[in-house]
Amino acid sequence: MNRNGGTGGTGTVTATATAAVTQRSNSSPEINLFQEIILRLALFAVYIFFEFQDPFVRKIHPEEMWLYRNPRTESYVPLTTLYPSVFCLVGAVFLTFYYHSRNFRELKCAVLGITLADTLNGVVTHSIKAAVGRPRPDYLWRCFPDGNFREDMVCTGDYRDIRDGRKSFPSGHSSFAFATLGYLSLYLFAKLHVFTRRGRGQSWRLLVAGSPLLMAAMVAISRTCDYHHHWQDISVGSMIGAVLAYVGYRQYYPALNSQLCHLPYGSGDALVLACPSRKGTFKHESSSVDSEQDALLGDDKVGDSKWT
User: Fold this and answer.
1) What pLDDT, in 10s, does the model give residues 217-265?
2) pLDDT at 156 (0 to 100)
3) Could you tell me the pTM of the whole model?
């Protein structure tokens, strides 16, 4: 109550909050979709360039021949199965949440994040493959398909098989699986509020959101079972994919312990600024989506997801 017995203080706080919300909402940078598409096309072009580059020819010493003498087998998870399966799963999840939220900005950010992670992963993984040139476990049978091994290591096999046989490190299957399915897990962790107050302690959320990570791990493990990669290849490939999944995700979404983790940057800022503190005064300092959790402790319904 003010000096004249009025309640002008409350009105002032409300007006200030409204003005701040309007200003922040209007100042949120818009995504330049054309620029983002061009960037991803450029990254994809670089990936294709390294895909067809001849790798470094690393000397194979006699004492390490046993590492590359494993039998040739078909891939347990060929790319013709991996790519359609993973992208169909990701698309189905994105479209399901879009169907319930009708938030096109959120769908756009989800797609931009995962395409950034995948194209970056393609460039990083295949540039390292070409630079390292590590032979695959079945390299000797690619090099000498007739079984007549030569000490001078002058290969008699198909050129494309030999070139691909020197691109073992890191595993492309593993990095792609963790970049894409790892991103999907991050997306589901946020949508189901696995690490916020609303979702903690509900094991089904953790299991559902974490299941894509298990799928990625099984894809990676299969690459040692079919003798296409060494364990070091899949370990490093998995780490590359997981890191780039996180990088791509955080470009568009806040931290997973944020109460607004299910909303992309920009759409959640106004909700944060509109929330008063416990003392009833407007919190001007809550300018970041990542720092609003304390401001929302008394109001779990702000920006609530339809899936919680």
Assistant:
1) 999 999 999 999 999 999 999 999 999 999 999 999 999 999 999 999 8
2) 87
3) 0.80
Structure tokens at 242: 């997981």
Active-site residue 61, yes or no? no
Question: Which of the residues 173, 228, 230, 262 is marked catalytic?
Answer: 173
Select which of 126, 193, 228, 229 is catalytic.
Answer: 229
Residues making up the chain, counted from first to last: 308
What are 82-125's pLDDT values in tens digits?
999 999 999 999 999 999 989 899 999 999 999 999 999 999 99
- Is the distance from CB of 119 to CB of 247 less than 8 angstroms? no
pLDDT digits (tens, 9 = 90+) for 27-49: 446 888 899 999 999 999 999 99
Whole-Å CA distances, 116 to 41, 79, 177: 10, 20, 14
155: nearest Cα among 54, 52, 51, 48: 54
Tokens of 55: 């790798």
Instruction: Please tell me the distance from the alpha carbon of residue 19 to that of residue 273, in angstroms, as a whole number.
Output: 10
In the residue annotation, 100 being an active-site residue is answered as no
Cα separations in angstroms, 1 against 5, 10, 12, 34, 171:
6, 8, 12, 52, 67
Give the span between the Cα atoms of 46 and 52, in whole angstroms.
10
121-162 tens-digit pLDDT = 999 999 999 999 999 999 999 999 987 888 778 888 899 999
Give the CA distances from residue 160 to residues 104, 163, 164, 179, 286, in Å, rounded to whole numbers and listed in that order. 43, 5, 6, 26, 56
Pick from 165, 167, 169, 164: nearest CA to 140: 165
In sequence order, which residues have a C-beta less than 8 Å from that of residue 86 and are 6 or more positions away?
176, 177, 180, 181
At 278 the pLDDT is 45
